[in-house]
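**Backbone description:**
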Amino acid sequence: MDARIKTALVVLVVLVGWVAALSSDPGVYPGGDQNPLHGWRTLPTIPGASIDNTTLTVGNATLVHYIDAAYDARRIKRAVIQIHGENRDAWNQWMYADLAAQRGAEGGDFSRDEVVVMAPMFFNTRDRGAYPYDESLDPGATTTTQDTSLPTNTAVPRGLGRRALERRGKFPIPLGKVSTTRAMIWKSVEWGEGADAYEPSNAPGSFEALDAAVDFFLDRTRFPHLRKVVVAGFSLGAQLTNRYATFRTDTSNDDRLAFWISSPNSFVYLTPTRPLRIGAACASTYADYKYGLNGTLPQYVSSSSLSPSQLIQRYLARTVYYLVGMHDDSAGLDSCAPNSQGRGHLDKMWYWTQQTLPLLPGSTGRQGQLPDKSEVRFVAKTGHQDWKMITSDPGVETLLLKAWFANGTDANAPQSNGVTAAKTPSLQQVTNSAPSIRANLVALLAAAAVTLLVALPL
């Protein structure tokens, strides 16, 4: 075989392996779609986890969740509540957090059975079959539609299966109330901002649901040796986590609570200032909730009646970890209000952690210097990939290792898996980021293919 052909074939094999490694999501997707147009039809069984629809009572409803199938509450030192993104794959979030916990235990300071993982399921009405239903309960029900032709707050990596989401256009939202359980169900993605559930009627919202989950673990009669609960969210789940960290009313256990916010499309800003120009289309609405404190707030928020300055001081006093991938240049929801916070997940995180938080009243007052209880990790070689972020070295560190011991010291880290923290980028690096991973790989694959074609005899 010609040496040029051999070289081109080797390059192709290496690059194909590289692509496979970058997209090796261990997740399970019933039906093969990462975010099915018509919703999930089943909740898959995951080894090591159980599906619970009775333990967490939220008003007149229950919050369905995946949780470790067998745990001894007397041994538990840490609980991780891992919240899915827009595609509502709670089972995968449990699996990813379980993998992170297994990695953390390899450091030698704790064992996997000292950690319990919970992954809530925020259903929407399209998930009929994943929740039990009976169409005859509302025979005259109508539907509405939601336009998803623009990029959404999805947990699907940009370029790796994302194009199908961007092309799918409008999807139906069934408005019939046909559930045969008390499981909390929303119409669409409004759970990410703390909104009340659509079913059952008069049910509370996702903030109250998180209160129920957090308080379940903080109960010392149930978990007598628990030291820390980590409320963790990716993408739309991170939006919910940011807003929950802002508005959770109970501060009595803040020393045992941490928030883990990875790759959100937006934050709730607590002042009128934004890092980028405010477009004319939203000049009078850019600060409306869920992007600011104006407009209609969820009942959970409006009933607490704290001033913006009080909200800021409470938020700054809480333990919050921020993470984003250095290759996460995906845009998320492309609209006026979130665009004033940045153009992609990476620069939105940069502006929030390097400019906005430091300059809030009562914070450090210095750009690039976060308040004492906040930390940020920019994760190298990572895009908008939940599984990769959660199981990365920084993911394991902030979910499991930070302040593991009762005296506040960290647990030892396991051997690196190669997905590490990068140096904090400059604003120029963020705003002039390199093309996406996929674009680079496509270019390399194309070059290898051209080399192979040139080398082939005519």
Remarks:
- Residues 13-21, 149-168, 434-438 have pLDDT under 50 and may be disordered.
- The longest strand covers residues 228-234.
- The CA atoms of residues 73 and 223 lie 5 Å apart.
- The two ends are 14 Å apart (CA to CA).
